[in-house]
Write a structure and sequence with these properties.
single chain, alpha+beta, Nucleotidyltransferase, domain 5, 4 helices, about 45% helix
Length: about 120
């Protein structure tokens, strides 16, 4: 039993690194990363050169809990709009999209399309 959890963890780490080794955020074009947990979605815009998180958002706020489920396509759409607004305040227009270990499908695709509609370019 323990061997299967170790193998799953190792497989996840290699999948993340396979995606992330090709991506790097700079001050001109920071990295937009997304993470899904069992209950929530988390998003950050990171400048890898300085090692600084420029802005971040998630579905854990009270406003998102009252309007819709915390892990749904509606939540992903509103999170994409929210992070695009925060990026505009930081004068960020172009980003590099880092999907992590998750497939570009479902919630991740909804989030990305919503952020693109609000003006983020990636």
């Amino acid at each position: 039993m323990q061997q299967s959890t170790i193998k799953r963890s190792r497989t996840r780490k290699t999948r993340v690194m396979r995606v992330r080794k090709k991506l790097s955020g700079s001050s001109g074009r920071p990295r937009l990363t997304i993470h899904k947990s069992n209950k929530h979605l988390y998003v950050q815009i990171i400048d890898d050169e300085k090692g600084v998180t420029l802005c971040g958002a998630g579905t854990f706020s009270k406003k998102s809990k009252t309007t819709h489920s915390t892990k749904s396509k509606e939540a992903a759409k509103s999170l994409g709009e929210k992070i695009a607004g925060l990026a505009k305040k930081q004068n960020v227009k172009k980003v590099v999209f880092d999907r992590g270990r998750f497939k570009y499908h479902g919630l991740i695709a909804e989030f990305a399309e919503s952020a693109r509609k609000q003006g983020l370019q990636f």
